[in-house]
Write a structure and sequence with these properties.
With about 160 residues, the protein is α+β, with helices and mostly antiparallel strands. It has one domain: Bifunctional nuclease domain (Roll), CATH 3.10.690.10. Helices cover about 35% and strands about 35% of the residues. It has five helices and eight strands. It has an eight-stranded mixed β-sheet. A hairpin with a 2-residue loop joins β5 and β6. α1 runs parallel beside α3. The protein starts with a strand and ends in a 10-residue tail after the last helix.
């Protein structure tokens, strides 16, 4: 599994639906996930640490977990079928982990409120994410520069 974080929210140019963009911790891969407008608002409020006068659904979920002495330990985006992503909340309660099926957008909104890590299975990360070509080009330039500056003495045993 790969840990990811929310990079930004945007609008899909084709569908005009909100999209959340996850980025891996190395900043090399991006995973766009179409979400609903209410979930986009909930994610944006959490990203900007804005408070609301009354708790929204994800605030309520967090309060329920807190009051039951349960903890969201992580979320996992684990599958995709017919262009629909599947995710689960991993909640520690009573010393045991419970996995709860949920939409990725709800998982992300809750994870942001609970400071829980976001994970994506390797299958999803490799098959559905987009590789950042700019990062790849920068790494290649650094590698070329390193190779160009190598000297025979760099290969001596110490």
């Amino acid at each position: 599994m790969r840990q990811m974080k929310v990079d930004k929210l945007g609008i899909d140019l084709l569908t005009h639906d909100p999209v959340v963009i996850l980025k891996d911790m190395e900043g090399k891969r991006y995973l766009p996930i179409l979400i609903g407008p209410f979930e986009a608002t909930a994610i944006m409020l959490a990203l900007e640490a804005q408070s609301v006068p009354r708790p929204l659904s994800h605030d309520l979920m967090k309060s329920i977990l807190d009051n039951l002495n349960a903890k969201l330990t992580k979320i996992i985006i684990h599958d995709i079928k017919d262009s629909t992503f599947y995710a689960k909340l991993v909640v520690e309660a009573g010393g045991e982990d419970q996995e709860i099926d949920a939409r990725p957008s709800d998982c992300i909104a809750l994870a942001l409120r609970a400071n829980a890590p976001i994970f994506v299975t390797d299958k999803i990360a490799l098959e559905e994410s987009v590789y950042d070509k700019k990062t790849e080009e920068e790494e290649m330039q650094r590698f070329r520069k390193y190779i160009e500056n190598l000297k025979p003495s760099d290969f001596k045993e110490s």
